[in-house]
Write a structure and sequence with these properties.
The chain is mostly helical. The chain is 73% helix and 0% strand. It has one domain. The chain is built from 16 helices and no strands. It is globular and about 65 Å long.
Length: 331
């Protein structure tokens, strides 16, 4: 794999979106430290690298899978170039009308011929191969707990099954799979690998992020409705329609923020740090208000909803991390 191909692979991976897994994982670790468990920074660094690799595996494999399906559908419809055209030209034609939406914009890397599906998929599986020894290192060298490898295999299974194997995202379970893998498993694993013990605390602490991830997945499926329908990706928006998703958006936002009640009942947070939640709350509720105003009916409005929602979702674990660090500092 050459330098240009490697750069295209990272472009396809959509690195800014890695914040959706790396930040909540870090949140879980900081939560453990704030509860009195001794920080193990080397183990944290190794585990964070493993999370990075598994995130890349999931994102790239999903993009490659959907793009392949799009090409197959368009080819079956007779929309590829004339016989004898180069494979890259066929793929560019096959996906020409599908790689410009808010969520599928990174398909342009494949559509432009910068990288092939085979190369992208190979790189994705290589990430798993690199992550496996890190799991053994964590469990048997750093002694992060008997469930370390099990948590890693659950992460691999969820990432793989999202677009391949059980194909959760094609059967109406993709939203739940992401909410579990990105919202819950990251926080829970981050806590466990530092605490070396199971606890209900990270499960409760992850609740706001779990709901936010589920909500954002629904929002991002709205601009991809035609794309997903074309490849028979029967997610919740395809099954029940765009209006179904947008009607859930504001109630889910309310549920996400109400779930802070049990969080703050279990964890003592310095009252002076609560204003840190203002920024994620602003963007989260701004996106909900835009949805209530039916802005989702236009492409520009949908992009605005997704942009504000993603910003709020990303700022949420950052705010909580800082709040927990302040708790540790002033304890």
């Amino acid at each position: 794999m050459g330098i240009k191909t490697l750069c295209a692979w990272f472009e396809l991976a959509a690195l800014p979106k890695f914040a959706t897994t790396l930040l909540p994982f870090t949140l879980g670790a900081v939560l453990a430290w704030s509860e009195g468990f001794t920080p193990d920074f080397p183990a944290f660094a190794v585990s964070l690298l493993a999370v990075f690799l598994l995130t890349a595996f999931c994102f790239v494999l999903n993009a490659a899978s959907v793009f392949s399906d799009l090409c197959s559908v368009r080819a079956e419809a007779g929309s590829v170039l004339e016989e004898g055209a180069k494979e890259g030209e066929k793929k560019r034609s096959a996906a020409s009308s599908f790689h410009s939406t808010a969520s599928t914009g990174r398909f342009s890397t494949l559509a432009s011929g910068k990288i092939t599906v085979k190369e992208a998929t190979l790189g994705a599986y290589l990430c798993v191969i690199l992550a496996l020894p890190l799991g053994f290192l964590l469990q048997f060298y750093f002694r992060t707990g008997d469930f370390t490898l099990l948590l890693g295999f659950i992460g691999i299974f969820t990432a793989y099954s999202y677009s391949r194997g059980l194909r959760f995202s094609y059967r109406g379970f993709g939203e739940l799979a992401l909410a579990f893998g990105v919202g819950f498993l990251t926080v829970f694993s981050g806590f466990y690998l530092q605490a070396r013990s199971l606890s209900v605390l990270p499960a409760v602490f992850s609740l706001p992020f779990v709901v936010e991830v589920f909500k954002m997945k629904l929002a991002r499926e709205v601009p991809d409705y035609e794309c997903d329908s074309a490849v028979n990706r029967r997610n919740l928006v395809v099954r029940f329609g765009k209006e179904f998703a947008t009607r859930l958006y504001a109630p889910l936002t309310l549920i996400a923020w109400l779930s802070f009640v049990p969080v703050f009942l279990l964890v003592s947070i310095p009252p002076f740090s609560l204003p840190l939640l203002a920024a994620p709350a602003y963007f989260s509720w701004k996106s909900a208000i835009l949805s209530l105003a039916n802005k989702w009916k236009t492409r520009e409005g949908t992009i605005e909803i997704c942009k504000n929602g993603f910003t709020g979702m990303t700022l949420l674990p950052i705010a909580l991390i800082v709040m927990l660090l302040l708790k540790m500092f002033f304890a």
